[in-house]
Each structure stands twice: as C-alpha cells, then as structure tokens.
Amino acid sequence: MTVAMEKPETSGEAQQSVPPPPVAPVRRISRAMVVGAILVVWLLLFAVLRGRQTLSLAAADLTDLHRWLNDVNDSIGADRNSNPLFLYFFNEIRLVIDNLVTFVQDLISQPSGDRPVPQIGWLGVVGLAGYVSWAVANWRVALLAVAGFTFLGLQGLWQESMDTLSLTLSAVLVALLFAIPLGVWAGLSERVNRIVTPFLDFMQTMPTMVYLAPLTLFFLIGGASATIATVIYAAPPALRITAHAIRSVPPTTVEAAESMGATRRQSLLKVLLPMSRRTVVMGVNQTIMAALAMVTIAALIDAPGLGKTVVQALQSLDVGTAFNAGLAIVVMAIVLDRVTTAASERAEAARRSGNPLLKWRRHLLVAGGAVAAVLVYLSHTYLWAAEFPGDGGTGSTIAKAADNVTTWAQDHLSGLTNGFRDVITNGLLNPFQTLLTDSPWWLVGAALVGIAVVLGGWRAGITTAVCVGLLVATGVWSDGMTTLASTVVATVLVMLLGMVFGVWMGRSALVDRLVRPTLDAAQVMPPFVYLVPFLALFGATRFTAIVAAIVYAAPVAIKIIADGVRTVPAATVEAATSSGCNTWQIITKVQLPMARSALTLATNQGLIYVLSMVVVGGLVGAGALGYDVVAGFSQGQLYGKGLAAGLAIVLLGVMFDRITQAAARRTSN
Amino acid sequence: MARHWRAGAAGLAVLGLTLTACGGAKVGDSSEAGGSGSSGKCGTFNLAVNPWVGYEADAAVVAYVAEHDLKCKVTKKDLKEEIAWQGFGTGEVDAVLENWGHDDLKKKYITQQKTAVAAGSTGNKGIIGWYVPPWLAKAHPDIKNWKNLNKYAAKFKTSESGGKGQLLDGDPSYVTNDEALVKNLKLDFKVVYAGSETALIQAYRNAEKNKQWVIGYFYEPQWFLSEVPLVKVDLPAYKTGCDADPAKVACDYPVYDLDKIVSAKFAKSGSPAYDLVKKFNWTNDDQNTVAKYIAVDKMTPEAAAKKWVDANRGKVDAWIK
C-alpha cells in the first residue's frame, strides 16, 4: 500500500501494457455494463426494501463484542502490577526503549544531569546535520540541512524541534532494527512475504488512536509509548521496500554468483544487499516520513515536541501558532527527505565513479569531521552555542501572517465555500449515503461482492465477502457505510484533481517543479493545523472531513498520475500530434488511456490515504467510524466500540485495496 | 592516512584554542544552574493537564505555586482524562485538577482498583447545557425556553441534520445526554457530533459573526464565553435523580461540583504538593481570568499564572499555609 513500493512495478507494467489495447476495449465495455446492471438491480431493490435490516446503532449503544473488548481492556489494566507478562516482558521492552529515547533527548533536546542544556547545543546539531548530510549525500543538501535547521531555531521552536527529532530518530532506529532483517527475509522467501503482508496492511491502516490508549496501558505514558506507536506505523514501508528491493535484483546475477561458488550467505552480503542498497535507502526515507506524520498524534499521550505545540494551539483555535509549528515539521521533513533521497542516489553514483575522486573525498571528510567536532565541543561548553540566540521573532511573524491569511479567507470566501459544500453534499454525498445506509446490509454486501468479482475476479470477490461478513460482525456496519460514502466521494474528487494536475504536471516539467513542493508540504503538514480554517469555511460537517482528506490524499494521486503520463513514450505523442490531434484529443485519447494502470494505482492509493484520514474527519463533524474511534480513545465505556470501528476501517481498506489491485492487474494484462 | 589524522588533530586543537579564547559564558558558570537542580523537600510533582483551556489555567496556577513557593519540580503531562486516570495506578500521574462528574472513572479507579482518591472541590461550578449565540437570544428572546425550540427547528436545519433542526454536540469525552433529551422532550432535532471542542467553538464563532442559527452543547467555565457570551437555553429543571436512567432523561444537567482526584500513593506521600492540591480552591471568574490570559491574550501558562498569583496573593497564601 505504499506509493514508493508500488510505483516502480507499475511504471514497468505501464510500458508492458502498451501493446494489447485492440482487445481490451470490448472487454471493458462489457465489464462496465455488468457493473451498471448490478447498480440498477441494487437501486430497484433499494426502492422496495428501503430502511429494513440496516443494522444501525446509536452513538452510545454497544454490542456484546464491544462490551467484551471493554472487559479485556479493564482486566489488563487491573492486574498489570501482578502479571508476569508485564513484569518480565512489556516492562523490559519499555525500559530499553525509554533508555534509548532519554539518551537521544539528553544528547540534543532536554537538559541532562545537572546541566541546564542538552549535551549538544544548536551549533553542534546544525554542524553535525550539515556534516552528515554532506558525507552521506552532497554539499547541496548539506546546505539545505544547515539552512533548514537554522530556520527551526529562528522560528523560536528549537527545543520542540529537537524533541521531535529525537523521538523520530529513536523510532526510526527501532523500526529499522526489525524492518530491514525481516524485509530481507521476506524478499528471499515468498512464503514469509505472504505471511507478513496482512500484518503490514493492518499496521498501516489501523487508526493510531485505537491503539494509543492500550499502548499507555502496556508501556506507560511518555517517550516509550510514543516511540512504539510511531514504530508500529512507520516500520511497514521500510520492510515492504526492502523486500521489494531484494526481489528485484535480477535472478541471473545471483545465479552467476552462486555458480562461482558463493555460499548463500556470501551472495546475500556481497550481491543482494549491495545491489538493493539504493531502494532500501528509499525505504528508510519513507519510514522517516511516516514517523514524522505521527508527531501530532503521539502528542496526545504526552510525547514532547512540535506536535504538542500544534495540539495545544488547536485548543484555543490559535491557527498562527499551530501553523508555525506545522511549518517546522514540514521543514524537518523536507530536509530529511532530500538528504535521504540524495544519499540513495549517491550510493549508486559512488559505485560507478572511479577511485581518485574517492581519495580526495576522504581527506575532506576528515577535515569536515574535525570542524563538526569543534562545533559540537563549543556547543557543549558555551551557552551562546548551546541555546539558540534570539527570541524566535520569525516564528511570531509567520504566525501573524498565517492568522491574517485565514481571517481573510474566512471573511471573504465562506459564502462561496458554503455554496460549494451544499451542492456536493446534497447532489452527491447524501443520495449515495442514503443508498448505502438505508439498503438492507445483505443487499449492499451482495452488490459490493458482485462489483468486486466483475472488476477484480473471483479472488477479490471472496476477499470482499469475508470483509463484508467481518464488517457486520464488528457491529458498526451502519457507521461503516456512512464512512464508505464519504470515502468514495472524497476519492472521486481526489481523482478529478489528480487527473487535472497530474496531466498538467506530466506534460510540463516546469509545472511539475513548481507544484511538487506544495504537494510535499500538503502531505507532511499535520492535518490538525488546517482543521480550524476549514471549520470556519465549511462548518462542522462531513464535507469538511472530505476536504481535509482531499488535501492529504490528492498529492499522492497527482504524483502517480503525473508519473504515468510522463512514461507515455514521446514518439507516440508526436505521432498523434502529426496526425492532427489537438491537445485535448492527445490527453483524452492517448495519454490518459495509456496511463491507465497509473490511474488505477492512483485510485488505490487515493482511497487508502482518504481512509487514513477518517479519524481526523471524526474531529470535524464527519461522525461515523471516525467519531467512534475518537470516542473510544476518550471514554472508557466506548473503548470496545472504538476498537471495533478501527477494525472496520482496516476492513474497508483491505477490501478496497484487494479490489483495486486485482482490477489493476486485470486491466494491465 | 596517519599524517592526515595528525594534521586534522593539530588543526582541531588550534581551532579549539582560538575559539576558547573568544568564548563566552560557559555551561554551568552561572549560579542559577546549580540552584535549579535542588528542589527542596517537595520532590517531583506529576500533574496531568487535560485538553481544555480552563484546566490549563488550573494547572498553570497550581504548577506555578508549587514551583515557586514550595520548590517542587513540576512535570506537566498533557493527557486526555481516561489516560490520565490510568496513570494513577502506574505512578505517572499524581493529580487531576478538574474532574467533570466521570462517575464511571471514579468507580473504576477509586472504588475498584483503589489507585485514586478524591481530594475535594476546586470551587468551580460546572454548568452544562444548550446554548445559542447572543444575537439569536436577542432577536428571539423566547428561544431561551425549550418549549419554543420546535417552533424554530426548521431554522436550525443544516446539510447534516437530515431535514430536522441541528443540535451540535462537541468532543466525545463530554458528559452528554443530548440524544435522550431530544427524544424524551419530543424535539424535532437531530444531534450532530462535531467531534471536537475546536469544531464547536468555531461553529459558535461563525454563528455570532454571520448571524447564523446554531444551537448546541456548551459549558461553563470556559474562556470562549469571554469572547462570545453564549446564552443558555432553559431545559426542564434538574431534580435529584431525574437523570438516573440515561435512556429516560428529560431534565437539564445538574450543576457539577468540579473536584480534584489524586493518586492514592500521592495522598499518603506527605508531599507539600498534595496539601496544595487539597486546599486549591477558586471561583469560575478566577479560572476564566487565567484562561483568558492564555487563550485570548496568548500569554504562556507560566506568565498567565504569575500575573494572577501576583494579583491574588491572599488566596494563594491560604492554599500553602
């Protein structure tokens, strides 16, 4: 379900999929007709059976499953001081991770021992960041790192940023410790891969708020729980991408090594790992990004850092302060992203380049290391180098500007936005939601299974049937259907945006370069930051949640579609141009059809990303599953229901993923 | 290679010496650094901070007094109620300063697990109810009586309320009977969950600014009331026991006597911080003042607490005697 992993596969598939079109259209039309027929039957039956067997459940009502989950939770909490599992297992894990986090914090963010400042002050951190970036990548990203880190200080958020950085670093370290070996194993063995994949899906789609409360039960409040929560969410990308990297090493290379007498171990260490290094570093990159995305959620269990600033500012609706802290997270993400990306490219470049360059580099590295060491020493010894100078004036300027922009937008746009909201809600969302929630559950289930079979084949149909069954068992079917309606509407809008901007970016490198940073920022900016302005513009409604989901999910779809459009061979486009096609015809008749598998992948990722925003949507009036999860996190007696709602979100995710993936495979073959 | 190491080391030494010469204040030089390490007999005081500004005001003042008058080392922990109470048992939370009813948590942690004990009232009166924006109460004064709500139901319709009037509820951790109330009072309304306090406040803020029809759940003491003085709608008066059966509630919310909960261990510890928590007592106005400093005037909690403590020394002295 991770973009970075899927992309290389499909761009390959896109190229392979060029020849077959002659047969495909006929089959596609017939498939569309079957889907249409299913929908017509559904509508007819809906008209007759409306309002029966809808399995609706009021906000405070519970099922037996929910109560049972409550009891389990309570009994764990009650005997956590006597249970040996706690004393000898969870407590040990907690101790190790707590020590790791405290160690990193002492180093760069928190006063340690009897020192009023951490061991390494801002000058040392900036120096180290620059030096390490230069050593693993190049001087350009080193400059970016230095500038970025200095900017964090100028924002007046030095300590918060370092707290966030220490938590991120600890979590990434722990995640990689497990993910890389497991990833290698999964890459070598298809069976292991098949076993771990569902777990990874689960870890990535289960809303964090669901396991935040139990985590504090197991690992107490504070750094350790926050780190473990982050690890659960952030480890899967590294694991998947490592496995993918190992699998994509050409088998002939491995065979060649083995025929030359290399043992399994040797071919792993000398051939497989070095050859997949570049991709593995991309996995590390994805893990870092995922860890940063957890910063605000982890703040809900007292994780220190920028997330806390965002959450606290939200309480008094202080958009400016929240934006300032959100911007710091974006800056840190961009620095870490560019450095790791450049590092993965350097690994490649270094392998190809000759020795002489390497020799010079070594000298420079030693000299640079010396400078960095001096900076660290200074920041350890002198206050001026330890505490960031100045009063963070840049931060308050940014906050004020953000405030002014939001106020302006709220005052001038709300008439427009309310109109737009009502059109979408009444025209699209409400009818669709009524169809899903007011039809009998078995009718909706049958329709979903039918569509899955037509689009994705029998296996997808079976998966869907199982998911529908489990959804009913969770007891939150009706809420699930409400969420499903919003999710589908959000995904349709995401795809519209994706096609417009994706095609535009795919056709013009300049547009791509201009738009891409905005997309990056939209993905990393914590949603909590833009909730307040959106609430002002759209009110506490389902539509606000849809807009928030679009901001998060559209960038992924846009990037994938842009990629797909770009891989359409230039020769094909030229041929179409010379035969007299205008731009519109080229886009609709050539580029989009040929990028079809990219479109399917974009739909898949768009849906999954939209689903991951369901809980955030619950905070701004979307109700349904998102609200259930938030409520379960807030109230003991709703804990079980929140957990069930979390499971329902996972089930929806698995269902979508399997259908769209199967559909993608069918369209590209 | 060895030569380079030597050159590097020499360069490092020279650079280091030069920089040392033009140095500045060294870490540990200042006398203050030594002082902040010793914390007197109080030790560490773990204070939970639940996520609303009124609570933040309580915590700011208690923390300020504990730090400056009792020389405690105060660790504030930002947590939701449920998780804060969980922390009593594990020794990670010593005190919760503003408990709103939460009989379920009291039963679980005070009666059953015995990890927490009640530490008396904060002096704050918690009022929960249905509120409308001031412009609406002024334009239609009779809306303050619940019996007239159905007359106006159509005006409260939104895209979310399915043809009925919308009654907006907030954060799921709120104590609420609203769904039962709507049903039992036979009101033509639907409860819509905004999902967070932020969403609720923003809805009222918009409503007052743009003269929109909004009715919803709200509570006092709350800093937002100093920005927009919402008007409470009268529901059938509360009588003891009228809310005994959650499904049959047809009366207003009781006035909550907000109280403090501490961990059982902390209560027995003899820490002066415990005495402070036990004696801490102030009015809704006091809390609103500090909350306003934090939320509206954007002061840090420390600065807000200092301002209030300096102006109210008498009250504070009574807590620490």
UniProtKB/TrEMBL annotation, chain B:
Keywords: Signal. SUPFAM superfamilies: Periplasmic binding protein-like II. One of its GO terms (cellular component) is ATP-binding cassette (ABC) transporter complex. Pfam families: OpuAC (PF04069). It comes from the Bacteria. Residues 1-23 form the signal peptide. InterPro entries: ABC_Gly_betaine_transp_sub-bd. GO terms for molecular function: transmembrane transporter activity. Residues 46-310 form the ABC-type glycine betaine transport system substrate-binding domain. Transmembrane segments: none annotated. CDD domains: PBP2_BCP_2. This is ABC transport system glycine betaine binding protein. It comes from Streptomyces sviceus (strain ATCC 29083 / DSM 924 / JCM 4929 / NBRC 13980 / NCIMB 11184 / NRRL 5439 / UC 5370).
